[in-house]
Amino acid sequence: MPAHAIPSIEEIIETFELLGDWDERFSYVLDLGRKLPEFPESERTEARRVHGCQSNVWLDLGVERHGGPRVRLRAVSDAHIVNGLIAILISAYDGKTPEQVLAFDIRGLLSTLDLESHLSGTRRNGLQAMVERIRAEASAAQSHEAGG
């Protein structure tokens, strides 16, 4: 399934605001996880595994070069709720320049969605590990683009 099946971050925020309680929001996060683009088993390598997550998470960040550098993000987990969190991160970061990824206020987004207060400590740590990995890879891509 293509990543464009994942709603925009603005649509996700709007839907969160419309949903009343956390049971509905939790169901929505699970639904988002079902929209992830395919991530074949053969690509779920140790090099792509995100360490620091309670569940297994594999993340691939590439940079599309034509039309200017754009981050292309794919990831998957063996946990349904984590797939929903991944979908939110893809919505926030995919298609952005490395500079936009690094400038994006992910803390503000998570605060707006009030996600972290409804996740266990290990899930919060895993979410942070994914964000750190995305930012590190975007920073490396930015350095590569600058020739350094």
Number of strands: 2
- Strand arrangement within the widest β-sheet reads 1-2
Uncertain residue segments: none
Overall tally of structural domains: 1
Question: End-to-end span in angstroms?
Answer: 35 Å
Q: Quote the average pLDDT.
A: 91
Tally of separate helices? 6
Q: What is the string of SSEs from the N terminus onward?
A: HHEEHHHH
Strand residues, percent? 5-15%
What overall form do the CA principal axes indicate? Answer: globular
Structural class: mainly alpha
For this structure, the CATH topology is Sufe protein. Chain: A
Give a brief outline of the structure.
By secondary structure, this protein is mainly α. It has helices spanning 9-18, 22-33, 80-93, 98-103, 106-113, 121-145; strands at residues 57-64, 70-77.
How would you explain this protein's 3D organization?
By secondary structure, the protein is mostly helical. It has one domain (3-145): Alpha-Beta Complex (Sufe protein. Chain: A). It is built from six helices and two strands; from the N terminus they run ααββαααα. It has a two-stranded antiparallel ribbon. Strand 1 (57-64) and strand 2 form a beta hairpin. Helix 2 (22-33) packs across helix 3 (80-93) and helix 3 packs parallel to helix 6. It starts with 8 loop residues before the first helix and ends with a helix.
